[in-house]
């Protein structure tokens, strides 16, 4: 995974309060130097609507059918949950949470704090995502901060699409293209399906976990950033491998990945309720 970061001092310095899972942190200087190597972001993509968690990145998202009065949802990774990594086959639904998120404006400045009411959904099975329901509605966020939620794309993305990974944690962006899609991406105990593979320019790092992957042309979220092969090992933690339909394994050292989000849009019902039985919902069930 693009490791969630820990360390009370670092988290407090960057974001304020928060508790992170126990995972080794990348030194801040090294992380910032790595991030600075990323290519320039597309001009149309800003930080507006992104958030910083205590240990990861995220974004305020909505489906095309979301109403202004619906509770706002925050998207991040399953491995960024405050309760720790969900095990293979584990799905978290409707769990109370009081987690907070620092909301960023277009320039990357923190303009306010959003608070979760619950973990609406979280898993690391087949995908790696979490959705928090917040105590604020989309309209309240727009009225208070002038920031609209990022809209989720409803269709499968295509290879060659220009994208930007926008990290609210580091307040940095990474620009590249979608290189292709991975039948199965295996990392340690977890397996993810139909993952997005970036071209090499997106050198995401620890703390970028949960960042929205934004289509530069439409401004819509097509995926959530989650992992990369750090040292060329095969299918180990922090070194995911690709497995094709025939079981052939490929290792791509230095290449990073994301999990698609179009298949979760049908799961979002009225009032931002996650209904895994809705037609077209592609998220794993408990």
From TrEMBL:
Transmembrane segments: none annotated. It comes from the Bacteria. Pfam families: Trypsin_2. Residues 1-24 form the signal peptide. SUPFAM superfamilies: Trypsin-like serine proteases (SSF50494). The keyword Transmembrane does not apply. It comes from Streptomyces globisporus. The lineage of its organism: Bacteria, Bacillati, Actinomycetota, Actinomycetes, Kitasatosporales. InterPro entries: Peptidase_S1_PA, Peptidase_S1_PA_chymotrypsin. This is Serine protease. Keywords: Signal. The keyword Signal applies.
């Amino acid at each position: 995974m693009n490791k969630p970061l820990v360390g009370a001092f670092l988290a407090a310095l960057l974001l304020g309060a928060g508790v992170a899972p126990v995972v080794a942190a990348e030194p801040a200087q090294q992380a910032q130097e790595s991030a600075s190597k990323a290519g320039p972001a597309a001009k149309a993509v800003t930080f507006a609507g992104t958030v910083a968690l205590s240990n990861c990145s995220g974004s305020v998202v909505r489906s095309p059918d979301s109403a202004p009065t619906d509770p706002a949802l925050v998207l991040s990774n399953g491995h960024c949950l405050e309760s720790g990594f969900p095990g293979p086959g584990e799905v978290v639904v409707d769990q109370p949470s009081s987690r907070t998120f620092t909301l960023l404006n277009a320039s990357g400045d923190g303009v306010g704090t959003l608070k979760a009411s619950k973990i609406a959904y979280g898993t690391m099975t087949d995908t790696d995502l979490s959705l928090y329901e917040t105590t604020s509605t989309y309209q309240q966020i727009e009225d208070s901060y002038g920031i609209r939620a990022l809209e989720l794309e409803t269709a499968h993305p295509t290879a060659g699409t220009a994208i930007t990974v926008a990290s609210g944690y580091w307040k940095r962006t990474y620009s590249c293209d979608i290189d292709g899609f991975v039948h199965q991406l295996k990392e340690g105990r977890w397996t993810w399906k139909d993952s997005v593979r970036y071209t090499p320019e997106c050198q995401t790092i620890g703390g970028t976990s949960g960042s929205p992957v934004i289509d530069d042309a439409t401004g819509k979220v097509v995926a959530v950033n989650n992992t990369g092969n750090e040292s060329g090992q095969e299918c180990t933690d922090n070194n995911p491998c690709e497995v094709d339909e025939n079981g052939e394994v490929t290792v791509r050292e230095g290449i990073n990945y994301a999990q698609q989000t179009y298949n979760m849009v049908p799961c979002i019902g009225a009032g931002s309720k996650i209904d895994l039985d809705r037609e077209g919902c592609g998220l794993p069930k408990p």
